[in-house]
Each structure stands twice: as C-alpha cells, then as structure tokens.
Amino acid sequence: MQARWEYLLLPSFVFVVLLIVSSQYVFLKGSFYEDLGLGQIGDTFDWVNYNKFFSDTFYLSTLWITVKVSALATLFTMLLGFPVAYLIARMRSQWAMILLAGVVVSTFVTIVIKVFGLIIIFSADGLLNKFLMGIGIVDTPYTIIGNQTGVVVGLMHFTLGFGVLLLYSVIQTIPRSLEDAAQIHGASRWRMHLRVLLPLSLPGVTVGALMIFNMSMGAFTSAALLGGGRVFTLPVLIQRTMMMEIKYSMAGTLAAVLLIAVLLINLLSVFLLRRLRAARLVIA
Amino acid sequence: MSTVAQQLDKSVRDTGPPKRIGLPWGKIVHYLYCSLSYIFLLSPMIVVIGASFHGGEFYTAIKFPPDEPSLRWYTKIPQTQYEALGLSFLLAGSAALGACIIGIPAALGIVRGIIPGKALISSIFRAPLQIPSIVTGIAFLQLFYIVGDATGLYLQGTFAGLYIGHVFVATPYVVGTVTAVLQRFDTRLEEAALSLGASRMSAFFRVTLPVIMPGVYAGGLYAFMVSFGDVPISIFLTSPGFVTYPVELFYGMENDFDPSILASASLVIFFCLLALLGMQKLVGLDALLRSGSR
Questions:
Q1: What is the pLDDT of residues A238-270, one digit of tens each?
Q2: In this structure, which CATH number among 1.10.10.10, 3.40.50.12780, 1.10.10.60, 1.10.3720.10 belongs to the domain A44-283?
Q3: Looking at the complex, does the CB of residue A133 fall below 8 Å from at least one CB of chain B?
Q4: Residue A125 clears pLDDT 70, i.e. is over it
Q5: At a CB cut-off of 8 Å and minimum separation 6, what does A163 contact?
Q6: Which of A99, A114, A160 to mutate to test binding with chain B, by most B CBs within 10 Å of its CB?
Q7: Interface membership of A8 toward B (CB under 8 Å)
Q8: Is B236 within 8 Å of B247 (Cβ atoms)?
Q9: What ipTM describes this predicted complex?
C-alpha cells in the first residue's frame, strides 16, 4: 500500500490559504470605501482613495522616496556584501565559519537594537562625530536621524546580513575550478573577476538584488526610527495613517499600492530566474 | 636581489600560473574592504553592548566607549521590560512550535504527495514572505476588527491574535528548510526499515524524522528569530500594557528613553549569540545555511 502523503498537506494548506485570503480580502475591499473619520467608512464602493493617491503629490512623493531609498540601499548592500560573500565562500580555513557566524548573528538580532546602536554612533557627541570634527571634515555634528541618508543606512543594516548569506549561496554554486582555470591560462585576478566570476554570478546577483529591494520597500522599523517623523516611506505612512489618523481605508489603499509594487517585482524576478536558468542550461 | 626583468623572465619559464611580483595588493585591498563591511555590519551591536556597561547618570548615561564601567543599568531594568521579554519568548517559542506543526506535514505533502501543481502550492506556502510585514500587520488588524464586529470576539491586543499573525509569517521558514532536507532524503532508508518489519509509523518516527531533524531545527530557529524580532506585525496587534520586547523598545526609542534599554538589549544580543552557538553544536552552521536558502 502506498502512503498517501498528500492528505498530510491538506490541513496546513487550508489553514494558510484561509489566512492569506481572508486577511488580504478584508483590507483590499476596505480600500475601496471612503474614510469618514474616526474609523468610520462610507458605504459606496469606488476608487476615491486610489484617485487621491495618484493625484496627491504628497503620496506620489512618498512612493518615489520609498523606491529611491530602497534602490540606494540595495546598491550599497550588494557593493558591501559581495566581496564579503566571496571571501567567505572561497576561504578554506576555520575562519570561514567564524566570519559566517558574525553575519548570521547580525541577521538574528532585531533591527530595533541595531538602529539603537546606529543612533548612539551618530549622536552629536558620539565617537564618529568626535572623530569627524577632530580631523576637520565637518564643523557641526553630522546626523543621520531624520534624513534620507539615515533611512538608507538603516535599510542597509536590515538587509546586509541577509544579502551576504544570499550571495554566499550564489558564489558557492560557481565551481572554484573555473577561476583556477582562468588564472592558469594567464588571466590576472582582476580580469578573472570581470570575465569569469561576474558573468557566472550575475543571474543569482540579479535575483538577490530584487529580493533585497523588496525587503527594503517593505521595511518599516528602520525607516520609521531613522526617518524620525520627517522622512516618509510607504510602510511608515501606512502605520501612521492606520494608527494616528485612523483612516483604515486610506491605509488599506497605501498597503495595496505597496503590495502590488512588491508583487510586480517578484514576478519580474521569477521571470528573470526562468530565463536565466534556461540560459544556464545552454552553458552547462 | 633579482630585477623585475629577471623575475618576469623566470615567470615565463615557469610552468603553471604566473607568480605575482611583490605584495598581493589585490588580496590586501579585498581584506581591508571586507573588514570595513564587517565594521559596518557589527558596530551597532558592539556599541550597544559597550555602552550598556557605562554607569553614568540618566542624561549622560549613553556613552561609548564607557568611562565608568559598571553593571548599574543591568540592575535597573524595569519590570515592564522583563514582562515584554517574557511575552516575546513565549510568543516566539510557541509560534516556532506552531510553525513546525503546520510546516512539517506541509513539507512532507509537497515533496512526497502525488499532486498536480506542486510549484504553485509551494509558492502559496511561501507567499507570507512575499507580503511586506507591514501589510500583513494591517491586514490582520482589519480582519480582527471585522471578525470582532461579527462575532463579538476581538483578537487584537490578545495573545491569540498576536499568535496567528506570527505563525503566519513563521511557517514558510519551516516549510522551506524541511522541504530542502526532504528533497535530499534517500527514500530507500525508509523502504529498508519497512522491509525489515517496521510499521509505517515506526519507520517514520525512527528513520525519517531523525533524518529531517536538522531541517526542523534550522526552520524552527529562523521561525523563532523572525517572531522574536518582529515589529511591523506586532505593533498593530499589541495593546498598551501588552507589548512584545521589540515593540516596547520601538516606543522607548520614539518617546521616553531609558538607559536600561541598553542593558536589556545587550542581554538579547547575548541570547542570539548563544542560540547560534547552540545551533552550531546541534546541527552545524552549514546545515543551517544549506537548508535556509528559501
């Protein structure tokens, strides 16, 4: 008799589908009714909130800022993360484990604590500002709280550990022998990186970058704390609209816009992954 | 001492990759760059731990490096923070358990079941990770309002409500790691147990389960940590006087700042370090990462 494993799946599947559908349905439906203030909503179904979103420059600039800080954070995360991931993936000693552990711990510690550390580092009489003023780069203390630079730095702390782990698994799939072969045939280290490592890791790096971009788009905590009430990204505005302005429908609309943006990026990533996999089959 | 020309000449005669002349600058630059990345990555945590040992007065209490080393603020962690930590531990532990109870059968069904559309089903199980947490937060809050209005049972600000939200985001991690382990599992092991007279139950519990345990531990740890560190979902589902630790910290940093936060945050960092070391002893870091690629 064959065991029927598919029956095991059923309860879990029903549970997860029920939670996804019910929660998403409620806020998506709610986003089509007008807010009347104090949590009351109108009773006609229309596009009023979406019209508001796409005609109000404040909402549009929020969307633009979210995309901008996320793109910058993704770029810098990849730039900081790739060399580290490469170093760990190609290391043969015990040190690789220790370096990896450092990265994993940073992904475990909640972002609130990391932002707390950042605020101490960048405080007016903190270590960094004393150093910067000591060597005369800045005259007044440099702060990252309440500006977009701060939000980018905060997002990077949210994504960097995860990014390194992602790139590490990408680089591990590239056989080291290919790099050795390039060098034996006389390629310099630089040329090997440019002509062998980069093209081979590009599919993984692209998909990884899209994942990091998505994480940044949805990041609430670091953006809220480092934005200091002056920089609004979509997640920060969603929380504010829901809890302080008590406009459930508008919050739902903002959430719907964020969700659709993120899902579109995911679709793009799935599409790319498929094309690149097909391309890799040709190579291998 | 040989001249550069002689060295070049020699390297041409040598077989194998050409030897480099002088210092390996490429490597040095790479190492320096990576040290900078690590400083960037780890400095906030080091600063929090360092500053927690500074024993200064309230308004000068944040100082790194500390000039009056003491454990003063560790003794002054208020009751509310301990309560928040307790709630977070309880919530994360039970959410991880719930994620395992839902995730392990799901993974078994996905890998071994004979069903159409496996790719679609596993992407549905992954969906909670694709939805931004803040969206999950307001989605559940609005759902709980509707359910409350209909039945009189309001789940926001209760443990049950928080629990549902956290299990929702934690489950995909367990499904992911256990699926990865199961896909590498050699089913002949199980067939051997069956042909030697084991019942289906005992073959599962004594052969299959022990083999997939590393995946369960890894997924459970991820689930725990995701729940333990969450702000965007919990911020909607908690209520004043009933908050998880990260949310307590979040409000603490926005409003009334208390240096004892440094002490309790350091304790949390130490706990994360211990959890990682425990996992390294239990299944090895490699297993944790291999199965962690979702």
A1: 999 998 888 889 999 999 999 999 999 888 888
A2: 1.10.3720.10
A3: no
A4: yes
A5: A77, A78, A81, A85, A208, A212
A6: A114
A7: yes
A8: no
A9: 0.89
